Amino acid sequence: MANAGGPNAAGEDGAKSAPSPATRSALKPGRRKRQRWFSLVAELTPLAFATVAASVFLALFVLWSLATGLGLVGPLFLPSPARVAARLWLFAVNGQLWQDAQISLYRISIGFLAASILGIPGGVLIGSYRVLDAAIEPLVDFIRYMPVVAFVPLTILWTGTGDLQKLLIIWIGTFFQQILMVKDNVKRVPAEFIDVGRTLQMPEWKILLRIVIPSAAPGIWDTLRITLGWAWTWLVLAELVAATSGLGYRITVAQRFFQTDTIIGYILVLGCLGLVTDQAMKALERRLFVYLRGRR
Amino acid sequence: MTAPKLDVRGLSKSFTDRQRSFKALEGIELSLADNEFLALVGTSGCGKSTLLAIVAGLQDFQEGEVLVDGEPIEGPGRDRGVVFQSYTLMPWLTAQRNVEFALEAAGLGRKERREVAREHLALVGLERFAESYPNQLSGGMKQRVAIARALSYRPKMLLMDEPFGALDAMTRHQMQELLTGIWEQHRMTVLFVTHDVDEAIYLADRIAVMTRAPGRIKQVFPVGLPRPRVPEVAETEAFIQLRREVLESIRDELVGV
Hints:
The complex is a heterodimer. By secondary structure, chain A is mainly alpha-helical. Chain A is built from twelve helices and no strands. In chain A, helix 5 packs parallel to helix 8, helix 5 runs antiparallel to helix 10 and helix 9 runs antiparallel to helix 10. Chain A is flat, with a radius of gyration of 26 Å. Chain B has seven helices and ten strands. Chain B is globular. The termini of chain B are far apart. At the A-B interface, helix 1, helix 9 and helix 10 of A face strand 6, helix 2, helix 4 and helix 5 of B.
C-alpha cells in the first residue's frame, strides 16, 4: 500500500490506551498532594474515607454511651450499649438469635426469589413490547402505590398467619417495584444495539436473549440489590404482625415485656444483615460484570 | 455501465408526530455503481442519516423504491453492513467476540468464526487487542472493531453513518486513512454519510449534496482525485477547488435557516 498510515499502523490511538492506570499514576510527581476536604467532586483516598466513616460510627457510640452512662435517659427508653450487648450475647448463646435469624433469612430468600423470578422476565417483556407494556404497566403502577402495610390484614384473611402470608407480603412489596425498575433497565438499552441485531437479521427472540438482556444485566442486578434492601423492611413488617417466629416477632415480644435492649439489639442485627447482603451483592456485581471496568 | 449496486428511486419519507407531519425526504434519486464509494453530505437535519437508515432497512418510507442488485429491499439484511455513529460494540464481549457475534448470526461455524474474526481484526490493525473489552478501547479503536464487524460477514455494501463523527480530529484523520487503505485494497460499494466535506472528498469517488429538509439530492460532484489517496492530496489545487464548490453548494442551503 502506498500511503503511510495503512491498517497496520496501529501505533496511533493504540498507544493512548497502553499506559495502565498504575503507570499513569506513577508518572505523577512524587510530591504528596494535600487532601482537600471540601471541594466539589474532589477525590478522597480510601484511608481518609474509612477514617471519616469510622469516626461517625464512633461518635454516635460515644454519644450513646454518655447519654446512658450519665443517666440522661432512662434505661427503659435507651439501655446502655453494654446492656444491649449482654442481651444479644445471651440470645446468641442460648440459640434464640440463630433460630430467629434463620427463619427470617428463609422467608426473605423465598419471598425475594419468588418476586425476582416473575419480576425480571416481566420487566424485560414489558420493556421490550409496547403491547405488554400497555396491558401491564398502568395496573402495576396503580398497585405499586397501594401501601403494602394495608395488605397485611387482607393477606391474613386470605392465607392465615403462616409462612405463606409473610412470603406474600414480601412478594407484594418487592415484585411491583421490581417489574417497573427492570422495565426501565431494559428501556435504557441503546436502540442502536437492537439495530445491530436487526442488520444481522437476527430473529426477535434472539435479539432479546443475546442483546437486550445482557445489555440490561448490570442495571437489573442493581435493581435486585436495591429491592433486596427494601425486602428486609417488608419482612420485618410481616413478622411484626400475627407472627410466631422470626426477628420481627422477637421484637414484638420484647416490646410486650419492655425489653428495650432486645429491641435495639435486634434492630442492629437487622441493620447488619442488610449491610452484609448489600455488600455481598456489590462484590458479586464486580465479579459478574468485570467488563465494565477499565478506562472511562 | 452495468446495473447499479444500489438504486434509490423517487424515495419520500415523512415523520408523523401526533398531528404534525414532517417531510424528511422528497423524491430522492440516487444510485451507486458496484464498488463505488459515495459520500452523502448536507446540513444537519437534511435527512442524510434518515436516508441511510432507510437503505439499511431500519426505517420505513412512504413512496419510492430501494433496490439492491435490482431487488427491492425487505427490511434490514446481511447484504448491507452498517457502521453507526454511536459506539455499538456489545460491552460484555471482547473485540474478538464482538466480531464473532456477527459471524455467528451469519451462520458460520465455531472454528471458522474465530479465524475470520481474527483476520478482520488484523485488517483494522487491532489483532493485539482481540481480548480487550470495549471499555478498555479508545473511541477510534471501537469504531475500527465496528468496521471489522461490518466487513466480516461480507456484505454487498457498507453503509456508514458519520462513523468518525464522535472522534477527535487526529483520530478521525487516522481512521480516514485506514478506511481508504482498506477500500483501495478490497474495493466495495460504500454509502458514507458525513457533514465533513474534507472527509467526503478524501474518501469518495462521488459526493452527493442534499438540500435542507425536505431532503433532495441537489448536486452530485465526481471526485477526480487519483488513487491511492494520500493525506497530501488535501493540499492540491484540485482538492481545494472541489471543496470550495461543495461548500458553496451546501452553504446555499443554509440561507434562510
